[in-house]
Amino acid sequence: MSGPGQNFDERSEADGEIRDAYRDYDAWFQAQDTKWLLRKHDDAETAFRRTGITFNVYGEDEAEERLIPFDMVPRIITSPEWRRLSRGIEQRVSALNAFLHDLYHRQEIIRAGRIPERLFRNNEAWLPEMVGCTPPGGVYTHIVGIDLVRTGPDEFFVLEDNARTPSGVSYMLENRETMMAMFPELFTQVPVESVSTYPRRLARSLAACAPEGTSGKPTVAVLTPGIYNSAYFEHAFLADQMGAELVEGSDLRVIDGRVQMRCTTGYRPVDVLYRRVDDDYLDPLTFNPDSMLGVPGIMDVYRAGRITIANAPGTGICDDKAIYSFMPEIVEFYTGEKPLLPNVETWRCADPESLKYVLDNLDDLVVKEVHGSGGYGMLIGPTASKKEIREFRTKLEARPENYIAQPTLSLSTCPIFTKKGLAPRHVDLRPFVLVNPDGIDITPGGLTRVALKEGSLVVNSSQGGGTKDTWVLKE
């Protein structure tokens, strides 16, 4: 793994020579007029504003909609690199699905002593209501986002798994559409794999997971919490692109043992519900009784095998960062193979020895909440103030089981476009994976998130990060 100050530059070698992945793009870029590129940069921002590609910021005095910054220099991955990544992603996603089935059935991995029972017994993401329940087609994780970071030429690590409701795919699609609209000639010079078929493949994959006995073409709907949700743009975008209905909880009700949606002619049964509502709000009769976002009685219909919920309730256990730390054991247990994509070294603060190490080395570590997301509730030791470290130490000592810690990685950099020219910034990558009974489908690319602030390691849009188009080069 690269050490501090030795960030791997994905575009160029240490001597400045352009790497193979960027050679064709760089030749095109160097031939362009700088003023024209600056105008194109402004055009991209205008296009995103017109399209309405924004997200809501929560937790501030005045919640607001913000534009997710888009950088027009693509992140480029060679075909051999992508093949290696795809094999590792497929292996990991297969193991996640097998793990979920086992966890809600015989729990062989716990009986074998490979992971401790305490990890899920009091875990809010583990749902007792799913015990003994097998989803239609046996698929738990229909859509998965695996967050990857790179530290060297052949060094890729999984940073976290997103098996509950991974977001961001609409930005992957809009980034590509924007690039093709702005630079059509560029795509004739550089052969890039397409991502535009994702919505159609998503629709087909979800339809393939319809309950047994579904007649005719399955009816697929997207369940959104509504317009005030931070990812509402994506919910509406995907429903439109898939040709699916966009519904809220108030549009659905249980009639004659089926979940049905209101339409102009009455109510119509739904076969597959792509839900973007968290477990706790899915069914007020089973989970949070105050929820106005879900459908009363939907879990009874689900357990009877009369609707597919994607992703399955209870999959959030795989997003738990303490579970993540056991993924090497999980992959080996269910596939019989060593992981092709390694984890980042992780200390579980619930373990007394690990906690002592973390407390002694807070200045050098990244500490995260086990259920945290969006870059919130974390400490980046090397950039934190003494006060922030003191406050975090108190939190850790009070609730060690709520945290894991990892080394501060030397994340790879990709160039971004600035008024002064190209400048390196840290990136991560979220490829999107579709799972159905017929197999696993990995979109060639994904969402590259970039830390636009110089030196920053936090790529989340809620923390000032932006996005890039991700190119996988054709053979």
From TrEMBL:
InterPro entries: ATP-dep_Glu-Cys_Ligase-2, CP_ATPgrasp_2, UCP005522
Domain Circularly permuted ATP-grasp type: 74-451
Pfam family of the protein (one): CP_ATPgrasp_2
Protein name per Swiss-Prot or TrEMBL: Circularly permuted ATP-grasp type 2 domain-containing protein
Domain of life, per lineage: Bacteria
